[in-house]
Amino acid sequence: MWESISKTAERIEQTPIRRALMLALFFSGSAGLINQVVWQRALKVFLGGSETISSMIVVLVFLAGLGVGSVWMGTRIGRVTAPARWFAGIELSLAVAGYGICQALGMDSSESIYYFQRAATGLGIPLRAVHASGAFVLLAVPCFLMGTTLPVAAEVCQRELGLRERGSVSKLYTANTLGAVFGSAIGAAILVPIWGQRLALMTAASANLAAAVIAFLAARAIGATPGAAPRKRELPNALDDERIPGFAVLAFGFGFCALWYEMFLYRAIALRHEPLPLIFSAVLTGFLVFWSLGVYASSLRASTTLFSRLTRAVVWTAISVAGALWFCVVDRTPTPLFTISNLIVFLLVKSIYFVPAFFFGLLFGSTIERAIRSWGRDVGWFAAWNTAGSCCGILLATFAGYEVDLLWMLLVLVLLLLGIGGVAGKLERARSLESPAPMSGDTVMFWLRNAKTVVFGLLALSTFATGFVQSPVARADGSIRLFGRDGVVVIDNAGYLFSDGLLQSRLSSDDNHIGSANWALAVDPVLAHPTGVIRTALVVGLGTGITAATLAKHDSIESVDVYDINQTLKRVLERFPDGTLRVAENPKVNIHWQDGRTGLAIREKKYDLISQQPLILKQAGASLLLSVEYFRLVSSRLEPDGVVAVFSNGTAEQALAVRQTASAVFPHMLALHQGYELILSRVPLDLSQHRVETLLRREGELWAEIRQLREAAGEGRWLEYIRTHQLPLGDSRITIRDDFPIIEYPHHLRTLVKGMHFAQALPRPRYDWQRP
Questions:
Q1: Interatomic CA distance for residues 311 and 293, integer angstroms
Q2: What sign for the dihedral angle of Cα 270, 274, 275, 278?
Q3: Which residues touch 625 (CB under 8 Å, ≥6 apart)?
Q4: Band of the pLDDT at 110, cuts 50, 70, 90?
C-alpha cells in the first residue's frame, strides 16, 4: 500500500513537469506547421508553379526529414544522458534554423537559382528533380530536427519522469498535433495574408524558441526533483527482432493509407470548394484535428471496450472512408475559404470528410502503445516506418492516383485497409500485440504471403483503373472530365472549360470566340503596340488556345510561344481540334508544358508582345503571375518597344492591386474594360480611335476578325470597347509581392483598401464583356 501511495505522490509531483513538456510540444508543433504552410507557398516561386507538384515536394521533404530524424534519434537515445536538455537544445537549433531559412528566402537569389535551372535543363536533368533537390537542401536540416523531438520527449517521460502508462506517448503526440492544428490555421488564415511570409517564418522560429525555453526550465526542474532522477530501465531496450515485421507493416500501412486519403482530400475539396489559398491549410487542419482526437482516444481506457482489436478499428476506418465517399458525391454547397472564421465553419460543416482521420489516429495510437517497450528508441523506430509509408502514399497518390477518377482512389484505399486488417488480425491471433511473446515463424510467413497478395492485388487494380478512366469519359449531362496529376479539366455541354473547378475559357464554335476575353487578350495588345512591328509573341497560359491561335493569324508574327503547366490540356487539344482553333497543329505555335514564370526565367528569349490568360485572382498561386517580382521578370524579357497584356478576373480591389503593382514596374499603362485589362509598356502607348481606324485598313485574317466585331457591335459599343480609362492607383500597402500575396485574399485586401479615399468609386467588375 505504501508503495502505491509513494507512486501516486510521485506522479502528482511530476504533473507540472509533464504539463510543461506538453506545452513545449504544442509550441513545437505550431512552429512546424507554420513553417510547412509558408514553405509550400514560398518555394512555389522556384518549384514550377504547379500547386499539386509543389505541395507534394514540400510535404514529401517534410515527412522524409521527420522519418530520418526519428530513426536516427531512436538508435542513439540510449546514449543520451539528459534527454530533457537535449529536447531544449533541439528546439533552440530549430529556432536558429528557422531564422536562417527566413533570411535565405528573403535574399534576392533568384538569378543564382535560375542559373542552376538553366544548367540543369542544358544537361537534360528534369526540372522537377532540380526543384526537389533544392527543397531538400533548404529544408532537410529543420525537418530532420523536427523528427527527433518526439523520441526525445518520450524518453524524458519514461526515463526521467518514470512514467509507465503507455498512453502517455499518445498524449505526447496529441499535444504536438494540436499545436500543429493551431499553426496550420493561423499560418495560412492570419499570418501570411496580414504579415507576409517572412514575418510568418519569424513567428514560427519564435515559437521554437519558446519551446526551447520551456523545455530548459523543465530540465532544470527534473534535475531538482528527487523522484525525477534518471533511472535504470526495467523494460527491454527494444522490440524483439521477431516482432518487428508485424509492427513494421502496420506502421507503414497506416502511414500509407492516411496520406493517400489526405491527398485525396486535397483534390476533392479543391474541386468542390475551388482551389483557394486556404484549401491546403483547411485540409491539413481538419485532418490533424481528427487525427489528434483519434490518437488521444487510443490513450483512454474507455476506448478499449469499443476498439479492443485493431481489426475492428480497421473495419471502422474503411466504413468511414465509404461515408466520406458518399458525402463527396452529394456535397454540392461550396464554402468560402478566405478567413479564419470561414475555416472554422468549414471544419464544422464538412466534418464528414475528416472522420477517417480520427480512425487513422486511433490506429496509430493503439498500435504504438502496444509496440513500444523502450519509449525513446521504439517511438523513433515506429515513426520512421510510419513516415516511410506516408511518403510512399504521397508519391503514388500524386503520380498514379491523380491520373484516375477520385472514386477509384477511395476504392483502392478501402481494399488496402482490408488487406492491412488481415495482417492485424493474424498478429492479434498470435497474441503478439498483447504479450512480449515473439511471433512464430508461421506467422511471419503468413504476413509475407499476405503482403504479396495485397501489393500485387493493388498493382493489378491500379493498372485496371488507370486503363479504364485514362481516356476522356463522357458523362450523362454531356460533360467530359479529364484527370491528371497537374489538375482536373471539365468541358461542360456548352463548351465551357473548367480547370480545377474554376471557369477558364470556352471552346470556339461558329466564330463565337471573336470578342471573348481570350480573343481580346490577343487583339488589344496588337492594336496598342506603339510601332505595330510584332514578330515574336508569348502567351502565358494555354486555356482553349484562343489567344495563341488568334495571335498566329497576324501576318507579321513569326512565332508564338505558349507556357502552360497543366498537361491534362493535351487531351483537350486532341479531342477538340476545331474548338481550340487547331492551335496544336499551327506551325507558328510552340507549346511548352511548364509554368510561365519558370519558362521566362530560364529562357532568355525576348518578345515583342506578351499576353497572359485571365487569372482567377482568388486562386491559390495567382500572385506568382502578378507580383512585382514577376512583372520585373516580364519586363526583362520584352523588346524595348514591347507590350504586355494582363486581365484581372476578380473584385474591384483586386484590380486596383494589380494596377498598383504593374505601375511600379511599367511607366506606361492603358486600362481597358473598366480597368480589368491592362496594356503595359516601357514606352508610350496609343489606342486612339484615329490610330485604330488606320490599322483596320490593313489586310489579313486578324484584321478581318476585328472589323467583323466592329460591325457586329455597332459604332457606340465599339468606341466603348477601345475606350481607355483613367483610374486611381493605390499605394505601397497593396503592392503584390512574392512575400506578400495579398491578391489571393480578397477579404483582407478589402480591409486595406477601405481606409483609402479616391476621387471616384472603383469600377465594379464586368463579366458580360465577351460580346461588347
A1: 19
A2: negative
A3: 540, 596, 597, 612, 615
A4: low
E strands, 447-605, in order: 473-474, 480-484, 487-491, 496-499, 502-506, 536-540, 559-563, 589-592
User: Exposure of 425 by Cβ count < 10 A (0-12 exposed, 13-18 middle, 19+ buried)?
Assistant: middle
Which amino acid, 332? R
Q: Is the Cβ–Cβ distance between 335 and 345 less than 8 Å?
A: yes
- Distance in angstroms (rounded) separating the CA atoms of residues 497 and 569: 10
CA distances from 79 to 86, 150, 169 (A): 12, 16, 20
Extended strands (E) in 408-551: 473-474, 480-484, 487-491, 496-499, 502-506, 536-540
Q: Which three cell numbers stand for residue 373?
A: 517497450
Categorize the per-residue pLDDT at 592 as very low, low, confident or very high, splitting at 50, 70 and 90.
very high
Task: Kindly state the helix (H) or strand (E) to which residue 680 belongs, with its residue range.
Answer: strand 677-681
* Residue range 300-340, pLDDT digits in tens: 754 444 445 677 777 778 788 878 877 887 787 777 888 88
Across the chain, mean pLDDT equals 80
Q: Which three cell numbers stand for residue 507?
A: 471552346
Using alpha carbons only, give the angle 288, 362, 446 rounded to the nearest 5 degrees: 125
The answer to whether 145 touches 69, Cβ cutoff 8 Å, is: yes
- pLDDT band for 462, please (50, 70, 90 cuts): very low
Closest CA to 187 of 31, 352, 378, 308: 31
For every residue of 625-675, DSSP letters joined together read GTSHHHHHHHHHTEEEEEEEEEEEES-HHHHHHHHHHHHTT-SEEEEEGGG
Backbone angles phi, psi at 610, to 5 degrees: -125, 125
CA 109 → CA 47, 104, 106, 112, distances in Å? 14, 8, 9, 5
Distance between CA atoms of residues 161 and 157, nearest Å: 5
d(CA 588, CA 128): 28
Please give the model's pTM, rounded to 2 decimal places.
0.85
pLDDT band at 24, cuts 50/70/90?
A: very high
Range in 60-69, 412-421, 463-472, 515-524 the model is least confident about:
463-472
Q: Environment class of residue 441 by beta-carbon count within 10 Å: exposed (0-12), middle (13-18) or buried (19+)?
A: exposed
What Rg value do the Cα atoms of the chain yield, rounded? 29
> CA 402, CA 391: separation in Å to the nearest integer?
15
Confidence band for 228, pLDDT divided at 50, 70 and 90:
very low
Beta carbons of 311 and 379 less than 8 angstroms apart: no
Domains of the chain: 1-229 (1.20.1250.20), 236-470 (1.20.1250), 504-754 (3.40.50.150)
Measured CA to CA, the distance from residue 460 to residue 458 in angstroms comes to: 5
8-state DSSP, 741: -
Enumerate the β-bridge partners of residue 270. none
**Band of residue 93 on the pLDDT scale cut at 50, 70, 90:** very high
Residues 6+ apart with CB under 8 A from 230: 81, 82, 159, 160
Among 651, 599, 662, which residue's Cα sits nearest to residue 767? 651
- 233 SS3 class: coil
Separation between Cα atoms, residue 342 and residue 345, nearest integer Å: 5
